[in-house]
Structure formats: C-alpha cells, structure tokens
Amino acid sequence: MACQIEDRRVTTTNFENRYAIGPNEVKQMDTAQLRDAFLAPKLMQADQVSWIYTHYERFMVGGAVPVNAELALETLDALKAEYFLFSREIGIINVGGDGYVIADGERFEMQYKDTLYLGKGTKDVVFGSSSSEQPAHFYLNSAPAHKSYPNTKIPVAKANVLHMGDLTTSNQRDINQTMINSVVKTCQLQMGITCLNTGSVWNTMPAHQHDRRNEVYFYFEVPEQQAVCHFMGEPTETRHIWVQNEQAVISPPWSIHSGCGTQNYSFIWGMAGENLDYDDMDKYAPSELR
C-alpha cells in the first residue's frame, strides 16, 4: 500500500534481491531459469519505484514512473542505511514524457533522454511528471560510492558522441556518453545511450566482456511487435534472451553482451566496477563466438 508523505508525494517501492551466478551454473539453465536470473522485465510500473539489487559489484537497476503523484526515493532494508544515497551514487535517464527530479530542494527538469547524476550524501530525492497523460519513465542505475561528487544534469545534447559501425555490417550507431568521467565526475558508475540508425540491428559488435566491471543493457524505442535478441554467456558458451521494450538484461563480468533486433532501436548501458576506463574490454570477433 502507498503511504502518503506530503500533498503529492508517495512511497511505493518494489524490491528484488538477486545473488551472483557463475558461468558453470548458467550452462545448466533452461530458458525460464535464464530469464529469471538475468532479465529485468517490469522496471516501469505506474506510480512505483522498482529495484533489483544484484550482487555483481552491488549494482542496482530500477525504474520510477510517477503518474498520479510524486515518488520518493526511499531507503531499503537491504541497504542498512539512513537514506538511499548514504553510501551510493545514482544515474537517472528519462525515457518517457517530460518530468523532473528534486534533489535536496534543487529541481532538475528532465526531458526525453536527459541524464542526471546524484552523488553520495544526497538525502531527499523526489521523482515527478509534468503530465499524468504522458508520464516520465525514469531509468535508474546505482552503485556504491566512496566519495561525494556534485549533482549534475547532462542533457543528451551535451553528451560525448561516438559514431560507430557501418550499414554494411548492420551496426551503424551513435553512442551518447552522457555519464562517463570525461563528462561528469563519478566514483564508479557510468551510463550512456546508444541509438541504432535505420537499417542497423546489431548494437555491439564485436561482442565483448570486461572482467573488471559488470554491465546492464536497458532496451527502449523497441517498436510494438518487434523484439531484441540479447546474447550473453561465455564467448564459447553463448546464451540468448529475447527482450521487449523497456526491459533490461543484467550482464555479469564474465559474460559477453550484444544484441540483435528485428528493427532498429535504442538502449542504455550502465556499468560499475574497478575502473572508469570506458575502453577496458576484451573483444571477441564474430568468428570466435560459439
């Protein structure tokens, strides 16, 4: 049940805890078990904040959809903390209608694809939508933080953009680096938005893994009746998960991550781990995958 806090603010939080799983266990999984372990299928629920706490780098993936009221970012029993960002940082990207985030009294207007970084020590966070008819959909990533950095909004127009791929290999795409260390200061959390051009369907090729970081892919702008096949697993023991719009796949450090859609789409990548080197990855040519 939602608990009234202020005139328009409610707290209604869903929480799920997922323990780390190794590559040997994944070899024994069927489709349903694989999806239960790694797919985040219902992050965007009306008037709810939804969280999955993974045990890969203590990374958290979530969503907030304020429709009829503002939503508060409340702490969780699992965090054993006075407030959510007591020892954490968070990245927020809006993939819905216009909205706003209020952080310790400072209001940040959030348009489509805008990113907001909130640092350790931010106590009071509220999510809101400008219109209940077209509510904001806030996609959330959070990781432990050892230091406080300033709260910073990064409009997608201010992103560092990498133009990658080619139509001949069906992976022509723009990588919008909105929350990396060359754009905004963070402890370990990094996020960005990759948009595939019309006619391209592969989001990351060559596929890669980085044993020093985990990563989560959140797929959006997937047209109705279309889907993305996300590939994961060890390079020589790959598995796949079919993904719909506004669903995410959790990638352990030992897993590759790559996807192919039935039409072009966009996705948000978020990662945390040992370093902030964006290019710290181990690549595998298509001919090496099994």
Automatic annotation (TrEMBL):
Pathway: Glycan metabolism; pectin degradation; 2-dehydro-3-deoxy-D-gluconate from pectin: step 4/5
Reactions catalysed: 5-dehydro-4-deoxy-D-glucuronate = 3-deoxy-D-glycero-2,5-hexodiulosonate
Single Gene Ontology MF annotation: zinc ion binding
InterPro entries reported in the protein's UniProt record: KduI, KduI/IolB_isomerase, KduI_N, RmlC-like_jellyroll, RmlC_Cupin_sf
One protein family per Pfam: KduI
Record keywords, A-Z: Isomerase, Metal-binding, Zinc
SUPFAM superfamilies: RmlC-like cupins
Coiled coil stretches, renumbered: none
EC numbers: 5.3.1.17
Enzyme superclass (EC): isomerase
GO biological process, one term: D-glucuronate catabolic process
Cofactor note: Binds 1 zinc ion per subunit.
Cofactor(s) this protein requires: Zn(2+)
Binding-site residues, Zn(2+): H208, H210, E215, H257
Function statement: Catalyzes the isomerization of 5-dehydro-4-deoxy-D-glucuronate to 3-deoxy-D-glycero-2,5-hexodiulosonate.
Family: Belongs to the KduI family.
HAMAP family: KduI
Name this protein carries in UniProt: 4-deoxy-L-threo-5-hexosulose-uronate ketol-isomerase
Gene: kduI
